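Wait, mind explaining this?

_____
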Amino acid sequence: MSVFHTYVDWTTEEVPRPFYVGKGNEYRTRNPERNQKHKHVRNKFGHRREIIFSSQDERECLKLEIQLIQEHHTFYLDDCADKDIACNFTKGGDGATGWVPTDSQRKNISDGIKKAHSDNPEYAKEIARLAKIRMNDPEFVAKVSNAIKDAFKKMPKEKLQEMRNKSSLKNKGRISPQRGERSWRTTLDDELVRQIRRDYLQIRENYKKVEVVKNLAEKYQQGYNAIFKIISGATWKHVEV
């Protein structure tokens, strides 16, 4: 049978402070990675993991996890918590093997993180800075991209089409606000995409491709890259002329 451990993570300062309480199996206990805030605290204040209790009864370990989170005030919304280092985003007991959070639990965690950021603007800036560095790492970006592609490959075609339809209706006639006008990730509706392609087919023989794209971009008030990707078939592949 598997053995589970309840542990406490401490800083390695002159006066150590507890900043995270967890429960896990042998692999989970040996792996220091938890959440982004946990990584930030580890890097800034050091890290020492102390195993408090081990048992084949997972429920006993979860029960102790809840108790230790309360005693050490590592739940970041605890009134007595040190907000700078408290890294538990729940009160514990929800990490049972195979546990999948409900929509309500996900929302509570998300709302809590947002509140923590609003209460500590400097920490929020630091998280944003670290995220920017990470997203500039080609290996990390490739890993995320491959994971997303694999997820889409496993998704039923009906679900993919439903997602496309929702996105098209919600953002009809808009350019992605995250990427700006130069983005090819346009959110035009299907009929307008067909019209752009028809226009391109009619005038492409009389002008250079660059000129055609510029004209269409101006006519339909879209970014150059958006039009280029549409007429090249690199995006909106589900839309036929």
Observations:
- The radius of gyration is 25 Å.
